[in-house]
């Protein structure tokens, strides 16, 4: 049975009485007992939604995602089948989160990346997550390491669900949720050992601000969406900004030509 956060590929077997094509295939994101389908064709999406509900995996509500929108990066959702619920309890790497899929950004596709990052962090570090959402990076790190993390987000609902999620977990480290624009909040914070920048379409525009808040031997973990050519152009921008790329990897595909890319950056002293 698939667990929370897995990206599930299914080929539903539809009951004989249904007139939908037998060949419906699809993938969906699972957040607790809610499934999110990203198929544009409404008939195919509805067929997949029914198949998910009947698959016995504990999903009770299925929504169609037509894209991420606005400053808060929330999903444009359309109800497809089952209960019309949007709040769910989600588990990832043994951490628990409470969230409303219609009010905050959340992607279960980053589960492996969050754990990979947590493993690289040492006790005693001070970390800033500039675009923290409900705080999944911070919570996964603080469950595993004795660190201090300031988690900033501009969306009041994200801060609300971050605070609820913190209560659901036994943390070794300390998280301070802060509501506000990262560029303003960072001015009054101490310099950090690490800065996490997960605003993939826009992170590059905040590089100066992050660099000013980074200790001389600190590391920035920046996520960006782009093609290999875009990445090369950004590498040049990064070099000009006085930073060096120490690690570059593809987290997952985003579109036929673009990927979510993770870069680790250090100050060039
Ligand atoms: N890091 C989180 C995660 O992995 O789930 C959320 C990342 S989401 C792509 C980007 C987040 O940045 C959103 O929750 C949005 O509200 C927030 N955001 C956008 N602009 C911001 C800003 N200037 N300052 C602080 N937060 C901002």
What do these coordinates show?
With 269 residues, this protein is of the alpha/beta class. The chain has two domains: 8-85, Met-10+ protein-like domains (GMP Synthetase, Chain A, domain 3, 2-Layer Sandwich), CATH 3.30.300.110; 108-267, Vaccinia Virus protein VP39 (Rossmann fold, 3-Layer(aba) Sandwich), CATH 3.40.50. It has seven helices and 14 strands. The strands form three sheets. The chain has a seven-stranded mixed β-sheet, sandwiched between helices. It is globular, with a radius of gyration of 20 Å. It binds S-adenosylmethionine. Residues 71-73, 105-107, 110, 131-133, 136-137, 152-155, 158, 181-183, 198-199 line the site of S-adenosylmethionine.
């Amino acid at each position: 049975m698939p667990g929370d956060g897995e990206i599930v590929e299914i080929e539903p077997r539809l009951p004989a009485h249904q007139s939908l094509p037998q060949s419906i295939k699809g993938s969906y994101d699972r957040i607790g007992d809610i499934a999110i389908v990203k198929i544009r064709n409404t008939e195919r999406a509805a067929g997949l939604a029914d198949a998910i509900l009947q698959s016995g995996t504990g999903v009770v509500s299925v929504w169609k995602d037509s894209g991420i929108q606005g400053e808060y990066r929330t999903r444009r959702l359309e109800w497809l089948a089952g209960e019309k619920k949007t709040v769910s309890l989600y588990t990832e790497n043994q951490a628990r989160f409470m969230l409303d899929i219609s009010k905050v950004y959340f992607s279960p596709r980053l589960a492996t990346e969050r754990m990979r990052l947590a493993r690289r962090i040492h006790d005693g570090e001070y970390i800033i997550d500039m675009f923290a959402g409900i705080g999944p990076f911070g919570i996964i790190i603080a469950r595993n390491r004795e660190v201090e993390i300031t988690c900033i987000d501009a969306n009041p609902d994200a801060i609300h669900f971050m605070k609820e999620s913190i209560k659901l977990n036994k943390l070794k480290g300390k998280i301070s949720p802060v509501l506000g624009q990262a560029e303003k909040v960072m001015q009054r914070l101490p310099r950090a050992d690490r800065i996490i920048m997960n605003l993939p379409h826009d992170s590059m525009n905040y590089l100066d601000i992050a660099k000013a808040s980074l200790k001389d031997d600190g590391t920035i973990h920046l996520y960006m969406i782009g093609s290999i050519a875009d990445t090369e152009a950004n590498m040049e921008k990064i070099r000009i900004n006085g930073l060096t790329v120490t690690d570059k990897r593809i987290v997952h595909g985003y579109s036929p030509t673009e990927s979510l890319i993770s870069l680790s950056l250090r100050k060039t002293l």
